Amino acid sequence: MTERNYQPGEFYDYPLIIKKLLNTPLIYAPDQEIVYRDKMRYTYRDLNERIHRLANALEKKGIQPGDTVAVFDYDSNRFLEAFFAVPMMGAVLQMVNWRLSADQIIYTINHAEAKLIVINTDFLPILETIREKLDNVEAVVVIAEHGTIPETRVAIDAVYEEMLADALPEYAFPDLDENTKATTFYTTGTTGDPKGVHFTHRQLMLHTLSAAVALGAYETIGRFRSDDVYMPITPMFHVHAWGLPYVATLLGVKQVYPGKYEPEMLLKLIANEKVTFSHCVPTVLQMIATSPSAKACDLSRWKVIIGGSKLSRGQAKAAKSLGITVYTGYGMSETCPLISLSVPPKQMKDWDEDRMLDIVVKTGLPLPLVEFEVLDDDGKPLPHDGMSAGEVVFRTPWLTRSYFKALEKTKALWQNGWLHSGDVGHIDENGYLQITDRVKDVIKSGGEWVSSLDLENILSQHDAVLESAAIGIPDEKWGERPMMIVVLKPDFVDKVTPDDLKQHMKQAAQDGKLPKYGVPDRYEFVDEIAKTSVGKLDKKVMRRLYR
Amino acid sequence: MTERNYQPGEFYDYPLIIKKLLNTPLIYAPDQEIVYRDKMRYTYRDLNERIHRLANALEKKGIQPGDTVAVFDYDSNRFLEAFFAVPMMGAVLQMVNWRLSADQIIYTINHAEAKLIVINTDFLPILETIREKLDNVEAVVVIAEHGTIPETRVAIDAVYEEMLADALPEYAFPDLDENTKATTFYTTGTTGDPKGVHFTHRQLMLHTLSAAVALGAYETIGRFRSDDVYMPITPMFHVHAWGLPYVATLLGVKQVYPGKYEPEMLLKLIANEKVTFSHCVPTVLQMIATSPSAKACDLSRWKVIIGGSKLSRGQAKAAKSLGITVYTGYGMSETCPLISLSVPPKQMKDWDEDRMLDIVVKTGLPLPLVEFEVLDDDGKPLPHDGMSAGEVVFRTPWLTRSYFKALEKTKALWQNGWLHSGDVGHIDENGYLQITDRVKDVIKSGGEWVSSLDLENILSQHDAVLESAAIGIPDEKWGERPMMIVVLKPDFVDKVTPDDLKQHMKQAAQDGKLPKYGVPDRYEFVDEIAKTSVGKLDKKVMRRLYR
Known about the structure:
Two copies of one chain form a homodimer.
Chain A: H1 18-21, H2 23-28, E1 33-36, E2 40-43, H3 44-60, E3 68-72, H4 77-88, E4 92-95, H5 102-111, E5 114-120, H6 124-130, E6 139-143, E7 158-159, H7 160-166, E8 181-187, E9 195-200, H8 201-216, E10 229-232, H9 239-242, H10 244-251, E11 254-257, H11 263-272, E12 277-280, H12 282-289, E13 303-306, H13 313-321, E14 325-331, E15 338-341, H14 353-360, E16 365-366, E17 371-375, E18 390-395, H15 407-413, E19 414-415, E20 418-427, E21 433-438, E22 443-445, E23 448-450, H16 452-460, E24 465-475, E25 479-488, H17 498-510, E26 522-525, H18 539-546
Parallel strand pairs in A: 1-11, 3-4, 3-5, 4-8, 5-6, 6-7, 10-11, 10-12, 12-13, 13-14, 25-26
Antiparallel strand pairs in A: 1-2, 8-9, 14-15, 15-16, 17-18, 18-20, 19-20, 20-21, 22-23, 24-25
InterPro entries (chains A, B): AMP-bd_C, AMP-bd_C_sf, AMP-dep_synth/lig_dom, ANL_N_sf
Protein name (chains A, B): AMP-dependent synthetase and ligase
Keywords (chains A, B): Fatty acid metabolism, Ligase, Lipid metabolism
């Protein structure tokens, strides 16, 4: 019953550890379902048993407290099982971004000192090319969801489902120190080696509680509560799918994991499983919204947090026209990730669509236990006037303590007791944060700052524009001038000229939405915009291309 | 901006302190109202300013971190201000139960080493009789809500509102260690000296977050969210009004403080201020429900947690007939206090009234981060079968670490790493706890346990019964036999006999709701039932009387 002997009068110093989170759904919703595509369906009771089996199996394979277990998988129930079992036994879960280059994957696995790999057979071709270069990996477990294991040079130690079936269904998870490291993954900068961020049990627990309060106890347009049905559409390897699988589990909601992101399958799951709550990047929203099946699907109960890149007004309006409730969530790999939500407060409920769109595309209000400021060049906080822009800095209980084994980078991250985001933004008198740029992407024209996000947002409101990116290109007179890289909607190709778009931007400047010097001179039409492995605009590549 | 210098790369170890809770409502709901009776009305922005002024004023009166400030007041905005200002400056808030005897009040104030007293002028007559015996009190601040200060022998150092008006509106609240003691008060046992319980910043913060999730993010009949209007009707001196003023503040809801509990004023506030969420003991619910104005008042939006004593089925039904949503909350002074809520899970929403009544009168399901068990005489957990009764024990992050300066009592409280409640109960297969008795009140007839709460609950369903108490009286043959002490409803006095009630109990035994040996032999009609200072049945007094 207790893990150790307690003296009479000695109190139990209840730790904030992930094991404790699991108690609530097992009482409130033991029979609630967890679904993986059209392939698997079980209850929270089963989830709990599989977590216990997984821990036993990993222990048998030599995993000890402090060891790292790396997982390569699509969004699945297996990943969810690892979210709990690995940290609960005192080990560290590494979520591997399989979209990285082979060299980067080798780097991250060696840097994290992963000892065991759990991998979907679909990714075995990657592992095959890098296996020999992995310094600490002693065992490979495969997830064979297609039933068979393809021929491979990789030595395979176990098959996931067989390993679970063979393991005991009871494991005595220890009472860990709440500051024990629970998870790690690597951020995908556009320069240098990936940087390892990491989170403790306490950090994940407080992130979960705060998000549950912000999304559940506040009356807003985008609530997430025990009667919702949850399906993440941001990768589970990326900041634990924004930490929301932990919130979903605490609430005991039905959870649906979609595997790969195929628009038809996603829409099918939304319809058949009655999904009401998701989160994704703008590109995925667009992919779903423009899918042929979307119009036939009732999306009026679907609430979606958009993050990763800025939700444009045009995208929000298009989603709204399909009945989808969208709003912005903001955070970074370094922040676990949730920092803010653009949920309109109660008094805004009756606002008309136009005013609501202005709110939902904002970066948002801080979650409980989140503080942010914008700093000037001297590190002093700027006024909350909706104008004064500077670097955005954070304090919350769930920020990575450091970049793992990277002291110099950590020194740039944590300055004066604030985490420095590398984002530029301003805060208005109501406390709304608005990110306007990355520090490194900001365009400086004639000494004035031009926000690339503002430019992209205004251009997205032109009927012909599917997607755009603003970058600064060197200019002899002004230092830099903004230019736009544009993907047109198929119907408008060859029907719209750069000058049409420039007229649109000029009009915006006349309407006071943009300074005059901010109107870009150059508009380049392309078929596709360069993106990073997690789907963000890759401006470094674009700047090189158009310089 | 920061409280101390941080080295480059040094992270900010965000503490769970009450100061941080206040940030959220100031952003989400700065203009929301806080109301005190028909006497005062201001915004959260004002609350924040008054908290800063109060801290400055207390510091000027010599209050330092670690000092104790004792407050004697009705439920008011002043108490709410003290809930924040005193702990936020690192001092300890003592909530004084002014219903205790003069000797007990002297004991608690001296034992807590209170240095300053804030007192409503209504309570000056008490202070007058005890002032000389208070060892550490250096200053007395009066709350003069009637405008004038009555003549008194007590030396008065300041008047609350004047003191605030004179103080500076900015105070640099420190970043405390989250394990700093924040609040203390004394439990009112029926034997021995009052026992001091105490809670830290971390404990209050986690209690607040968990309660906000349980009441907000779960779809239940009794939710508490940002669009509710809150009015506590359990004293703020008693376990910080169940900690719910902290939850209300986090949510930024409108808060209404009723002062003294006068039924007409309470109903007026419910109607005029549109109160939707409260909590009280059964006696107060009954007082309100039977008030002449109740029928004219629309109570259909009013949700009330009932705690302190068992909510009987009869009371729940009567409340329901007035449109009130009631359910049970359970906790103790030692537990901060919330442990469980009888909120029916989602799948029960469509149940008929009878089945719902069975649920709402249960002790309930644990809040997130709460664990409970029932133990047999050897300290082993009993099966969750809805039958096996034993002492109820708890683990959560918000249990008092000890009885202050009372090692022997603490040794009885904390055994084997579990807080021992002194309550007897059982847990059913769905995880619902049901308290059936106090360990010391349990009736042992012929070696079998008879639950006094079961007897009271069954008898409450007789039309004639307003209130009842079951006690064990010595019996030569059986050891003890149960007897009932009964208050009849006014219309039934002289029309109902003890034998009528015995028939009712016999019928319940025939229906399987009660063991046959549990049917009481003796039924004593009284005008009033003995109660403790916080309104609980005082069975010690009754046992002495009827032995």
